[in-house]
Structure formats: structure tokens, C-alpha cells
Amino acid sequence: MGPVGFRAADVRSEECIRFMKESIDECCREHPGCATHPNGFIPTRLIYVGEGKNALRLCDNIPSGGDITWAALSHCWGGGKPLSLTKSVLSSLKERIDFSELPPTFQDAITVTQKLGLAYVWIDSLCIVQDDKTDWEKEAALMGEVYSRAFIVISGASSPNPSTPYLRPREEEWLPKQFNFPIAPGANIPIMVRQRHLLAAPLDQGLLEPPFTGSWATLKKVGPLYARGWCFQESFLAPRILNFAPGAIIYECQTHRKSEDQLPPYPSTVPGSLGEVTPLEQWHMIVKSYTSRQLTFTSDKLPAIAGAATIMPQVKTSKYLAGLWSESLLLDLLVRTSKNFPTK
Ligand SMILES: [Zn+2]
């Protein structure tokens, strides 16, 4: 038990929007470690949302070098076939995207992007041509840049599929409950209780969650997206991320984490504060965490972690070999059995 802060009953509330804006403003204003360093990269395609919901359109072949900032969506594809970019609809989506035809998770991404005052959002299934293998391979290779160069990543963590919005009223189980606590015969005081949105995790498990921070490393976020393979590198690469987890919004950047209902004792933490974690150990943690997640298609296994490899320190000194590094190849190939592994 401990003190709790305010948790809004509806993620669409003014309080939630204010939390998002204030967290980002504070990050831009007060975190020198979070300053972005533009390298001229701009995604091949972006969805323009700068003039309201009735003027959405797909921008194709955006020239590089301009001053363009974008949000990128990290989400569960789930079942069903939401509106996606195919060769046959490319030209019509460049004219206009109908907001009402988009699945709720995409609509929410557009709403959040607009509330934050950004003009562009990147959504994988609308920005990569889904029935063009050449385009898919080219754009999948750029996804590391798309997420790591985004102004912010919007993580629809509480949505198990595109048809479940994450901007919605909170489920009853996450709301505070009041009961009377007896302190003396005939005397009660009202107590508010509620479910935790971060779970204490075994240290080893917590450490596997990037960015390997100190005191937060033993806390694990709750939500269907965190079991998904593709989402791993999306959150790993994000310079800033708004997690719409089931119990609360959690803001993370390069140097801080903050939750919507934060009160002390959740301190700010600094990546690498564990001190002695070497790049090789970090990579092994990443691989271990990543391979415990689910991927629908086995063929996605290497593409969905290749982006994370591009920002490892090893890139400067070693050759990346499909999940392994040339300078630590023998160690990377080692297999360790668990204590309970049968020996007979
Ligand atoms: Zn920051």
C-alpha cells in the first residue's frame, strides 16, 4: 500500500490531454539529454493531419531536408483487415483519407497527434504499400529511422487490436474503489484503493525492459502490446513515448519516466544508471527480452529487431550478422541451459 495520485476515469479527459502536453513540454524545456539531433531523415510517406479530420491525406515521396516532425504509432495489428495502403488505393489516399473509415486505434493516433500540435503521423499499414514486396522490404529497413527520428511514439498499449480504441473510458477494474476502514469500535475512515498499473517484476525480468533504468527497472508495464515482437524495437528506439496502458498513461523519454497518476516515490531515472552493463550484455538482454515476445510471422523475426541493432554502440566497431555481432560471435552463439534442464 502507498499513496496514490489522480487517475482520470476517461482517457479522453482534459486532465489526460494536459498530462501529455505538460510531460512533453517539460522534456523539451528541461532535459538536455533528450534534445533531438536531426540528420535530415524523413519517412518516405506520412499522413498529413494538420488541417483537421476532414483534410487528412497521404503524403508520398516527401523531399528530405525540410523541417518536418512526426508522431509514429506503435500498435497491435490483431485480426481483421483495417484500411491499409495498397497499390490500388495509393492515388486516392493521396487525395483524401476518410477519417470515418479508419479503425479506432488509427483515429486515436490522429487525435493525439493533433492535440499535441503536430502535423504528421506515421502508421505502418498506411505508409508502407502492403501488396508490394519491394516497397515493404525497402520501408521495413527504414523503420528503425522512422521510430528513432520521430518526435514522439504513440503506443496504443491497451488495445489488443485496431478495433479497440485506447482513448476510451477506463474499465471499472482500474478505477478507485472506496471502503470504510474501522479504526475504533463504531468509527470508520473512508479508504480509496485501486489496482496498480505497473507491476513489480523480478529484477532480471525488469532489467530486460529498455532503457535499463535503475529503480523503474523492477516495474513492468501492463498491456497486450508489450507481448508483441514488433513493438519491442518501436519502444526501444523511441526518443519519447506516450504509453496508453490500461491503467494509466505513462510518458517515457531518454532520461525520465512519469506516469499520469505519479506521486513520489517514482523518481526520475537516467538510462545506464546501472553503470556496469556493457553493450554486449545489453544486446544479450535485448535478444532475451525480444525472443520472449510473440511474432505472428516467423519471417518477421530478423526485420523486427534489425532497427534496434542500428543504434547499438557495436555498430561502430563490429559487423551486424543477423542478430549476432562479428566481434562477439562466439559469445553470442553460446547457449545456456536452465538449472532445471533434464540432463538424462
Ligand atoms: Zn526527456
Range of helix content: 25-40%
Radius of gyration using CA atoms only: 21 Å
- What summary fits the major beta sheet? 8 strands, mixed
What structural class do the secondary elements suggest?
alpha+beta
Overall 3D shape: globular
What would your notes on this structure say?
The protein is an alpha+beta fold and 344 residues long. It has a domain at 14-168 and 197-276. It is 27% helix and 17% strand. It has helices at residues 14-30, 90-95, 104-115, 124-127, 133-148, 203-207, 229-237, 279-291, 303-309, 329-333; strands at residues 45-48, 57-60, 70-74, 120-122, 152-155, 177-184, 187-193, 198-200, 219-221, 240-244, 249-253, 257-259, 320-321, 324-325. It has an eight-stranded mixed β-sheet with strand order 2-1-4-3-5-10-11-12, with helices on both faces. A two-stranded antiparallel sheet has the order 6-7. Helix 5 (133-148) packs across helix 7, helix 5 packs parallel to helix 9 (303-309) and helix 7 (229-237) runs parallel beside helix 9.
Write the layout of secondary structure elements.
Layout: H1 14-30, E1 45-48, E2 57-60, E3 70-74, H2 90-95, H3 104-115, E4 120-122, H4 124-127, H5 133-148, E5 152-155, E6 177-184, E7 187-193, E8 198-200, H6 203-207, E9 219-221, H7 229-237, E10 240-244, E11 249-253, E12 257-259, H8 279-291, H9 303-309, E13 320-321, E14 324-325, H10 329-333
Parallel strand pairs: 3-4, 3-5, 5-10
Antiparallel strand pairs: 1-2, 1-4, 6-7, 8-9, 10-11, 11-12, 13-14
The structure holds zinc ion.
The site of zinc ion has 7 residues, from loops.
